[in-house]
């Protein structure tokens, strides 16, 4: 029953003539006449509406205030931290906004740039796709080297605009993304939110900035999809994605091309090939294999059609960092200003791989040697989850344009990873340290 109906029932008789007022008081009669008046009831209704509106306005004010005071960014101290982190300490250095800075590649690239004297400000939303404590540990590592990480979402346009107001970034290293091929079957919207909507939000901020920064961003070798021509070259077709993750990265390449064409943004896309190493992602095979072997749990090894072993062009993190930094160093300036293009700007795409594919069983055998422990293997046929049977990079273009030259083989790279893993997780000869 509505409030007005309840009020009417409480104040008026349901059957006229049966309501008797005994020993009625003058004030009661006046009170009754007051509410019996139609015009007075109208005024009371207006009063109630005004009172409700005032309350809602006040509540909105309180909510806004709470959001303001609970915001994780903004304020004089926050701006000071951003500016200090973005300070350039070398001649001809860059001021770089690194998105996904608490991620695997983002952490390593940020450290490399800071070490040589560039200004670096990080952005990360610390989502829980994998253990956030690892991201927090990376953040502490970056903080120890004077790199400030802003906690926020790539889709927060106001935050991005504020960052560009506080610092005139010369470059953006865009590494934030929802990663993983198989997880796309569980949570497809997260890929659209981060890899497409987030990318567009960032590009909008970059095109409106004055000066416009040069942009280097992480695409993926996954865009080669169902190609069976090897090695993969940048000129190969990329319109047959095998997973939603791959499709969002392909969409990103088309979107960045559009912003380059319309707004004069200088853009370089990097197609990473299976990056591994210290501080890596726990969802990657080499990482989970290491964990399960140490814990005595079985590992699942997929194989392709006709029992063919899967193969990957495993690329060590240090080599990927060299390619990222080389891309920043060789990226020419954007040609727009305040969202208006003055001339054509460079648009580039490079493969960053190791050019030496290794089968997954070989990867496992290397881990067994470094861990001094045999794996319990469960070999099954590869399900239709978006994985591809092999990857192999042609890096001739990156070699000629960026001076890119990978130097770490899988044996050496996994040895460095295992040493980090045992140290970080407190293992001693395969047993946790008490």
From TrEMBL:
<keyword id="KW-0413">Isomerase</keyword>
<dbReference type="GO" id="GO:0050378">
    <property type="term" value="F:UDP-glucuronate 4-epimerase activity"/>
</dbReference>
<dbReference type="GO" id="GO:0032580">
    <property type="term" value="C:Golgi cisterna membrane"/>
</dbReference>
<comment type="similarity">
    <text>Belongs to the NAD(P)-dependent epimerase/dehydratase family.</text>
</comment>
<keyword id="KW-0472">Membrane</keyword>
<dbReference type="InterPro" id="IPR001509">
    <property type="entry name" value="Epimerase_deHydtase"/>
</dbReference>
<dbReference type="InterPro" id="IPR036291">
    <property type="entry name" value="NAD(P)-bd_dom_sf"/>
</dbReference>
<keyword id="KW-0520">NAD</keyword>
<feature type="domain" description="NAD-dependent epimerase/dehydratase">
    <location>
        <begin position="96"/>
        <end position="332"/>
    </location>
</feature>
<protein>
    <recommendedName>
        <fullName>UDP-glucuronate 4-epimerase</fullName>
        <ecNumber>5.1.3.6</ecNumber>
    </recommendedName>
</protein>
<dbReference type="Pfam" id="PF01370">
    <property type="entry name" value="Epimerase"/>
</dbReference>
<keyword id="KW-1133">Transmembrane helix</keyword>
<comment type="subunit">
    <text>Homodimer.</text>
</comment>
<keyword id="KW-0812">Transmembrane</keyword>
């Amino acid at each position: 029953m509505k409030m007005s109906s309840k009020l009417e029932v409480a104040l008026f008789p349901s059957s006229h003539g049966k309501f008797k007022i005994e020993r009625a008081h003058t004030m009661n009669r006046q009170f009754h006449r007051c509410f019996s008046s139609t015009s007075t009831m109208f005024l009371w209704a207006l009063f109630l509406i005004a009172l409700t509106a005032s309350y809602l306005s006040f509540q909105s004010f309180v909510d806004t205030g709470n959001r303001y005071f609970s915001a994780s960014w903004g304020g004089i101290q926050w701006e000071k931290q951003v500016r200090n982190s973005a300070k350039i300490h070398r001649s001809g250095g860059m001021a770089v906004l690194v998105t996904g800075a608490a991620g695997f590649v983002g952490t390593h690239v940020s450290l490399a740039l800071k070490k040589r004297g560039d200004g670096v400000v990080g952005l990360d939303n610390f989502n829980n796709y994998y253990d956030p404590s690892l991201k927090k540990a990376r953040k502490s590592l970056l903080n120890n080297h004077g790199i400030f990480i802003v906690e926020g979402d790539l889709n927060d346009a106001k935050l991005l605009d504020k960052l560009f107001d506080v610092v005139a970034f010369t470059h953006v290293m865009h590494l934030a993304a929802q990663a993983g091929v198989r997880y796309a079957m569980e949570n497809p919207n997260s890929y659209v939110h981060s890899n497409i909507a987030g990318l567009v939000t960032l590009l909008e901020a970059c095109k409106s900035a004055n000066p416009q920064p040069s942009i280097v961003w992480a695409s993926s070798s996954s865009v080669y999809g169902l190609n069976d021509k090897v090695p993969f070259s940048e000129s190969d077709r990329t319109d047959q994605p095998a997973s939603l993750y791959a499709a969002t990265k392909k969409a990103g390449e088309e979107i960045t091309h559009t912003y380059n064409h319309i707004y004069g943004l200088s853009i370089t896309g990097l197609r990473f090939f299976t990056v591994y190493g210290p501080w890596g992602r726990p969802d990657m095979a080499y990482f989970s294999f290491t964990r399960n072997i140490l814990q005595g749990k079985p590992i699942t090894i997929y194989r392709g059609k006709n029992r063919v072993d899967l193969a990957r062009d495993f690329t060590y993190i240090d080599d990927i960092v060299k390619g990222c930094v080389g891309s920043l160093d060789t990226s020419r300036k954007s040609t727009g200003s305040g969202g208006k293009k003055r001339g054509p700007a460079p648009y580039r795409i490079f493969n960053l791989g190791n050019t030496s594919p290794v089968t997954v069983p070989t990867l496992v055998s290397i881990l067994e040697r470094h861990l001094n422990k045999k794996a319990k293997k469960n070999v099954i046929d590869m399900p239709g989850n978006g994985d591809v049977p092999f990857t192999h990079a042609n890096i001739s273009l990156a070699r000629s344009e960026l001076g890119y030259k990978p130097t770490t083989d899988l044996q050496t790279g996994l040895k460095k990873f295992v040493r980090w893993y045992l140290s970080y997780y407190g293992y001693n000869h395969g047993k946790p340290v008490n």
